[in-house]
Amino acid sequence: MLHYNFKYELKLLLRSRWIQLLSVILLVLFGFAVHNGKQKVEKRQAILTTAQNEAMENDGRMLKLLDSVEQGMPVSVPSWTLPNSPMAVGNYYPRVAAMKPQPMAFVATGQADMFTHYVKPTVSGDDFALNFTEMTSPVQLLFGSFDLAFVIVYLLPLLIIAFSYNILSAEKESGVLRLLAAQPIGIPQWVLQKLALRFFWLSLLVIGALALVFTGLGLMDTTQLSRFFGLLTLVLGYMLFWFALAFLVNLWVGSSAKNAVALLGLWVLFVLLVPSVLNQLGTTVYPMPSRNLMINEMRKMKAEATQKQDEILDNYLRDHPEYAINDSTQARSFWHSYMASQRLIKEELAPVVDQYEAQLQKQQAWMGRFKWLSPAILAQESLNKMAGTSKQDYENYRKQVIDFAGEWRAHFLPFLFNNQDFSKKDHAQLPHFNYTIKSPRSSGETLWISLASLGLFGFGFLVSGKKKAVGIGN
Asked: Which domain holds residue 249?
């Protein structure tokens, strides 16, 4: 019977032009999505390259100025920007703290359209208030990006619904089901075979379309093969969930119209409603402290610190005797008082910033606990981790930049408090930022957890469908 079903389904799909139509649709959707994602990554890389080239040019000018100053030659730049001053170097010649795109970044935009990918920390900046947000159109954020993740998570289930919603109901409505009842096979097994064959053909089309698109756009090489197979595994697991759901609906509901409405309702529930409700509940249960209040508190502390700069500096030097021995009242400048007061402000504001970050972590943990309610969330999260554009990736980047900002500031403190000029030989010792991937879970681990969850979903639907259909055709 399986052999007959296989031949019958193939002829039916070819005559109805379903295979041809799906081939064209998948090629167009995957091709445009991957091309669009690749363009975004290339634009991001171009911006980072431009920023790094500017930093290199600034370093070249700094070394020339230092050479002229050390040889006693006149220079035509403002005195406060001369690079022999360590504070001038720390402010006017910063390093680029860049987050380079990962090899699969074109798969999912994720958080990439909300956060910047490079920052230039300075000694006078506030590392806890570093701004990582992009100037992005709210309309673009509302509609999102047409990337491969969008096609897989949102559009592919709709194609599966159109491909499988009337497996049983069409046979009932055409009168063929009475003939099938004379065959030695139960209705659940027959529907399962039909859906399994459609899953097989659609899987071949998805694999072929993705392989053609990746090869055509130059994204398929030996280094990408393992990532490509990981992507295929996730896509097939996600497809299996929706085919299992179609199996359940075909047996439980009835007419073709009702099946279509039921499957579309479930698509809205799992893809749109559950993620939105979880997000709203997370915001309600763990509301974020006002960022404006935090900024106002920071400004208030700065104003108070400005009035007590001499006292703060004296206390700072008392805590750091290695600087105090080189201190003289005549040698004190604005920067001595400023750097000491910034350290105090940072320490006093730490509880406010920690509270802000703690609430953010609680919101993310809330989503993590209930993400299993929606296979769409599982698939999106796995694709974001695969692309290196997840919340965890950008939080990791933000923390690394804040740490580097502290390292950059600390590098110039000995120069400042020891009243030491910056020279050409000191240029080689300047700190450099290197972004390190430190996700709590690797993309591979997240992938297998998501696949296991999708498998449990699908298995549950198959068992429910079989129990409901016991006795229908046996």
From this structure: 2-26+148-272+454-469
